[in-house]
Specification:
Blueprint: H1 3-14, E1 33-35, E2 40-42, H2 44-53, E3 60-62, H3 70-78, H4 81-88, H5 104-117, E4 134-141, E5 148-155, E6 161-165, E7 175-178, E8 182-187, H6 189-192, E9 197-203, E10 209-215, H7 219-237, H8 249-256, E11 260-268, E12 278-285, E13 288-292, E14 302-305, E15 314-317, H9 319-325, E16 330-334, E17 339-343, H10 347-368
Antiparallel strand pairs: 1-2, 1-3, 4-5, 4-10, 5-6, 6-7, 8-9, 9-10, 11-12, 11-17, 12-13, 13-14, 15-16, 16-17
Domain PH: 131-234, 259-362
Domain Arf-GAP: 7-129
Pfam family, one: PH
Amino acid sequence: MSSTRHKEELKKLLQRPENSICADCKGKKSLEWASFNLGVFICTDCVTVHRSLGVHISKVKSVFLDDWTDTAIQIMADNDNKSANKMWEKRVPIFFPRISARNVEMLREHWIKAKYENRLFTGEKSTIPLSTAKRGFLWKKGKIKNEWNRRLFVLSDDATTLSYFINEKDIEPKSEMSVECINATLVGKQKLGKPYGLQLLYKESDGKTRNFYMYSESGKEVIDWLCAIRTAKAAVLGCLYKSIPEQEEERISRMLSIEFLHEGYLEKTGPKENGAFRRRWFSLYDRKLMYFKGPLEPYPLGEIDIGLQDRGYKVQEDDIASHQRGDGFCFVFKTPGRNYYLRADSASEKRKWMRALNEALDSVHFYLNGK
């Protein structure tokens, strides 16, 4: 088979619906690379990690620039990304966070290595940890001062609490959190200013929402902490040692941690429609829209519950406000008690926010109706 014929055959394989997204990060970037011994097409970002695995695990070629053999072409033809992942991602442990558009830059290397190098997701061996306890040092952002302090974090033996201590020799912790009330997510450089960080959203006993931010120089250490917290939460909820049906995995995973749908700066008015705009950091989390003075503030200035659309919750264009204020980036989030007039920095950000809010509204209907 000629080189030209090889390229034509590979183009046809890439047109298969099963090969429409990267086998690893699930992104829709141009798939210009392939691991021909694994039979998968991958993107330019994931190929760097594949190269680090070594050729005994993954042998990569450029789809369009490298020479291909008939044998390698046949391997790719006999496989596709979707069928390959039925083996390589057959049983992702419930405590391991799934890769997504939001966490991909932090999780990519660890996901790919766990998937192919450690074969952690194939179901070949038990992945349930023998202990849910963990202790170690992380850098934590101060609640009042904008500084980072090295603190000892301890996940209890019974998996019920996460505590941190000012000093290693302290007997009493500075703070103790119930694991069941923690939502832990990865957070990176764009928000935190550090490449590998964790955000803990915690519901305090008085009902207030509190954010904790911490980081480590080691990406593996951060992901180990995230997995440990999810493992502990699964143990508390009684689902760590159970066999979870495939159709229940997404629901259970959401119980362990939920990623933010969208975050960023918006401007909002006060209760009066014609009030002045104030710039706030907004976080869309599950069925709640929160706004803060800045991205790393511990407490929100306000929280907006998101309910069912047939009960008066809606996001729509705000043509009147846009006309009055001379731009096209305004929209309104309507609730039964109040309309929130919001302004984005650009048309693209406005579309992202409206799309994310509509997704949140749809998820409310989905989960409240059990569909």
